[in-house]
Amino acid sequence: MKIVFIISFVITCLACHKSSGVNNDPFVSVPVKVELRDLINEASGIADSEKNPGNLWVEEDSGNPPQLILLGHDGTIRKKIPLKGATNRDWEDVALSAVPGRQGSFLFIAETGDNGQLFPNYLIYRFPEPFL
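Request: output the structure for the sequence above.
Response:
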């Protein structure tokens, strides 16, 4: 009985060893940090561009102009694009998608923010993705 206890104890101790902190999972990577201070006030949504490879579309939250920012993967602003006829009451997200039956990609901006539950309606803006 004593030998069974000792073997069980040793196996339990080996099973409880501390991890070295190294993750050998090939699907986990360390992210690259890109400093954006003073370039974007409050990014609320981000989507990878299809028509402008190597760039991201960024939209800012309420209190910012109704515009999209084309941001390089390296963190540099390529262009700011005003959206005529749109208002930025409280934008929450941007998404890129292809619409079946149509050529090209489309961007969607969600005008859905309402922390104080003050607004009677919400909007989704849809427009063709700009090619710059």
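Residues 54 and 73 are 6 Å apart (CA to CA).
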